[in-house]
Every structure is written in C-alpha cells, then in structure tokens.
Design a protein that fits this description.
Rossmann fold; alpha/beta; globular; 153 residues; 4 strands
C-alpha cells in the first residue's frame, strides 16, 4: 500500500483538493485498496475547519466528490506513517522539514515534482483562482498516480 500525505499551509484549500482528487483518480481505476490518502497543514491557523468553499465549488463542478474533512496539523510522527509527504510549494516544504526535523528517506517533495514541469502550486486563498490550482493539482496527481503504478514510488 502506498501512503500519501498532501500538505499545504492551512489544510483547507490545496491539500484537501489534492486529497479529494487523488482519491477520485484512484477510485476510477478501482485501486482503493492500494492507497492511503490524507492531508494536513503546516500551520495551526485553520485546525478543525472544513474545506474552503471555493475548493468545494471547484471540486463539485469538476465531478469530484470532496472527502469528509476537517483541517489537521502535520506531526513529526507522520514521517513514519506515510511513504510520501507532498507539499504544494517551497514554503510548505520548509515548514514541513521544520516539523519533521529531517528527511533521511527523501519522502518530502512538492506534488508537481512528479511532472515534466516541476513548480509550486499557487495558493487560491491569496489568488482566488481555484481553477488554476485545480489544473495544477490534477496534473500533479495524474503524474503521481502514473509514477506509483509504474513502480517508481
């Protein structure tokens, strides 16, 4: 089983979007028993809050069922629990490493590092552009799933 934790700043926009979208892609392929997918925040600002309304709206318009969700903070123990800890941008990675202490097994990466165009995913909390964020996350999750199925993970 491949265990994936998606991480962003508050765990209400990008990481639950990635969790929902990756869960959707895995279900479409009938591979639910091969993956454990979750999400978390690097900050404590939104702990307990639901998915942002803009994220919910975009997921539903795209035909993706949002996962049941309340924001949680990433913990040091998550390093041992997950095979991959995927941040959305460079700031997420720095904050993740501050929580984790180190990354000896190279589990901490950006989601779009699995694509042919590695880059940060903009935070729609600030940009308001949930469509652009969705397209980036779709690209990343598709590439991630392909890498997992190809045995690269």
């Amino acid at each position: 089983m491949t265990k994936i934790l998606f991480v962003c700043h508050g765990n209400i926009c990008r990481s639950p979007m990635a969790e929902s979208l990756m869960t959707h892609l895995v279900r479409q392929k009938g591979l639910e028993d091969r993956f454990l997918i979750a999400s978390a925040a690097t900050s404590r600002e939104e702990i307990g809050n639901p998915i942002h309304p803009g994220t919910l709206d975009k997921l539903r318009r795209a035909g993706v069922e949002p996962v049941p969700h309340r924001a949680v903070q990433m913990r040091r123990e998550d390093y041992d629990r997950y095979d991959l800890l995927l941040g959305m941008d460079g700031w997420n990675l720095r904050n993740m490493l501050a929580i984790l202490g180190s990354d000896p097994q190279k589990k901490v990466r950006r989601l779009l590092d699995f694509t042919s165009s590695p880059r940060d995913i903009a935070d729609p909390w600030y940009t308001g552009d949930f469509e652009a964020t969705y397209q980036d996350i779709l690209e990343g999750c598709t590439a991630l799933l392909e890498a997992c199925l190809a045995g690269e993970i």
